[in-house]
Amino acid sequence: MKLIDFDGLFDEKLAQYMSENKKKHTEREWEDVIPKLYKKFGDTFIAKLGCTPKQYYAKASDLELVEMLKAHLVQDVPVPEFLCAEIESRGAAETLLPLLEGEDTQTVSYAINLLGDDEKAFDAYFAILTENRLDEDVRSDIADIFRLHADEVKDRVKAVYEKGIATEYMLEILSRVKNKEDWVFDILLKEFRLGDEKTPMRASYLAAYGDDRALPYLLERIEDQAIGFVEFQELKYAIEALGGEYNEPRDFSQDKDYLAIEDASAKEGIKN
User: What CA–CA distances, in Å, run from 264 to 30, 108, 149, 233, 251?
Assistant: First the structure.
């Protein structure tokens, strides 16, 4: 099938429509009108094609749809929403999975968005998380998916964690496990008690996990007068999230992070 720049065709029609109706809407109203016009365009008959944009993709095979997606990305032609919608409606994971094996961030990102939390993609997702061939944004997107399915993948996550691979992602996923298990708590607590520069993030994992057995350790840590403002704030949040409280006054007037935040707040106040 031929690659069609439907977004380009829409832009041409839109420019004409806006020229003819420029006084009909305010700039803010156009922001609401344009998406509606684009949706309507999907059902607009295009004579030279003999069909609408939606019909054009509906008659393609699963493989043809994915090949067209790849062509759009390789040739830097905008990917029409109608193409993505048709691929999603098919639920044809098998044709999308090979896209996850590449090193092109944009292609992999499209595949992830279309596959979503389809379990058929989980093996490939774990491979991406544990390799360094793609950037952090892509890996974070996958971690977000696994956070919503933490109970389903926790054993696989544990196995990866024990190999010392992608540790931060594995902890983040484990912190979202709902059916509590001692081994999950033990891992999160052990990592928190290492007391390195990652302590604030590790405290947030304990807060997310929601086991109040962590409170004594959080309270012990927050008593350390040497901790900085950022760590203090994260610890205080974690303590409160687990039902505890800490109200002892602390002076951070010489803390660089505190001063930076205060300076940014003051500048924002001047702008407003």
Answer: 34, 37, 37, 17, 19
Q: Are 200 and 235 in contact (CB under 8 A)?
A: yes
Token representation of residue 197: 């520069």
Give the dihedral sign, CA 68/73/74/75: positive
The answer to whether the CB of 30 falls within 8 A of the CB of 18 is: yes
Q: Do 173 and 139 meet the contact criterion of CB atoms below 8 Å apart?
A: no
Place of tokens 């156009």: 30
Cα(160)–Cα(154) distance, integer angstroms: 10
Read off the pTM: 0.85
Query: Is residue 39 helix, strand or coil?
Result: helix
- Residue 33's contacts (CB-CB under 8 Å, 6 or more residues apart) are 25
> Phi, psi at residue 262, to the nearest 5°?
-60, -40
Query: pLDDT tens digits for the chain (272 residues)?
Result: 889 999 999 999 999 988 888 778 888 888 899 999 999 999 999 999 999 999 999 999 999 999 999 999 999 999 999 999 999 998 889 999 999 998 999 999 999 999 999 999 999 999 999 988 888 999 999 999 999 999 999 999 999 999 999 999 999 999 999 999 999 999 999 999 997 889 999 999 999 999 999 999 999 999 998 899 999 999 999 999 999 999 888 888 888 888 888 877 776 666 55
Rounded Cα distance between 76 and 235, Å, is: 46
